[in-house]
Amino acid sequence: MARTSHNESENRAGSFFLATLLLWLVSVLLEIAFNKRRELLFILVGCCFYQTANWVVRSCVSRDPLFVNTSVSLLHSTITSSSVVFILLNLWLKEGNKDIFEHSQLVGAAWPWAYKALCFSCGYFAYDQWDMLQYRLYSGRIPSILVHHLILLICFTLALYRNVTINYLILTLICEIHSIFLHTRKVRRMAGIRDAKSVVVTIEWVLNWVFFFVARLAAHVFITAKLIIDASKFDKGIELPLALFGMAGMNLLNIGLGFDLFGAFKREMWTSQSNHRRE
User: Fold this and answer.
1) What is the pLDDT of residue 1?
2) What is the pTM of this model?
3) Which domain of life is it from (predicted)?
4) Residues 5-27: what's their mean pLDDT?
């Protein structure tokens, strides 16, 4: 009976997030068609690109839905983090560090390639939401991963519609550097490489923790602090409340991720020690 109730809760959650995804898609299509926002086509390009990558992995490597999803997520993290580093490096080479983190730059301007990169990444989150719903790659009554993607889709899309806080959102994507190691760990374990004492796994865990604290935790805390410090500089409207809401959600999810990561680290070390004792 409890099992049936649990499944019904997951089904309701899936239906809710599917409905929000469809509403999001209709909104984007209407914005492109009626407001002639052709630059938003890069969102659909992102969706199609990652869905194509999904089909390629499924056809050529493995048909396991979790492996396919994780592989495409690894591709997204690699492309997005490389794009963010390129955008920031290009900006630094052209202008130095002058006014990069000024309020007017972060809110009212868009660095070269930033708008397209944000559209492309937004397309990925829509694709990934659909893939997880299609293959039920989530669990719980309120699946945190689906909540995470919904928050990002709302924040990214509204920013793209209004052409504001583009650079702020690019900075939030620095966390994708850490996501590379999260997804690498998943793929590595699915490939059967689980010896925590091996050099490769040790290096992976070191990089995982370093970039969790630097590229994810510290970066998002910095952005949140910057928003609070510059709160008086925002015009009256939805931008500041939405930005603070989004970052509050991201920081809470980061804390949860940190606990999950620590739990996974302890389990992997304990399992490895147990295996070596038996040998």
Assistant:
1) 45
2) 0.91
3) Eukaryota
4) 86
The single-letter code of the amino acid at 27 is S
- Helix H, strand E, coil C: the string for the chain is CHHHHHHHHHHHHHHHHHHHHHHHHHHHHHHHHHCCCHHHHHHHHHHHHHHHHHHHHHHHCCCCHHHHHHHHHHHHHHHHHHHHHHHHHHHHHHHCCCCCCCHHHHHHCCCCCHHHHHHHHHHHHHHHHHHHHHHCCCCCCCCHHHHHHHHHHHHHHHHHHHCCCHHHHHHHHHHHHHHHHHHHHHHHHHCCCCCCCCHHHHHHHHHHHHHHHHHHHHHHHHHHHHHHHCHHHCCCCCHHHHHHHHHHHHHHHHHHHHHHHHHHHHHHHHHHHHHHHHC
pLDDT value, residue 273: 60
